[in-house]
Amino acid sequence: RNEYSESIGCQIIKQDDVTQEGLSGLKSCPPDGLVWRLAICSSHALYSMGGAKSFAHVWFEFVQELRYRWENSLRIPG
Hints:
The chain is mainly α and 78 residues long. The chain is built from 5 helices and no strands.
């Protein structure tokens, strides 16, 4: 049995004093949206593809794509 599965996933739920103040640091976004996809790609770049250098490349490409779409009045999917 994995000792971390309970402590990581249920850490907030098991606390007795779960209040709005305690949860105010958590943020959310809709699944399969633009922010969600960017978060997945960024975390993958940071932890699996080489750290800050690979994250910087992902961010650069993302911003370049946004600039292109803005300048050409194209919709941003997601």
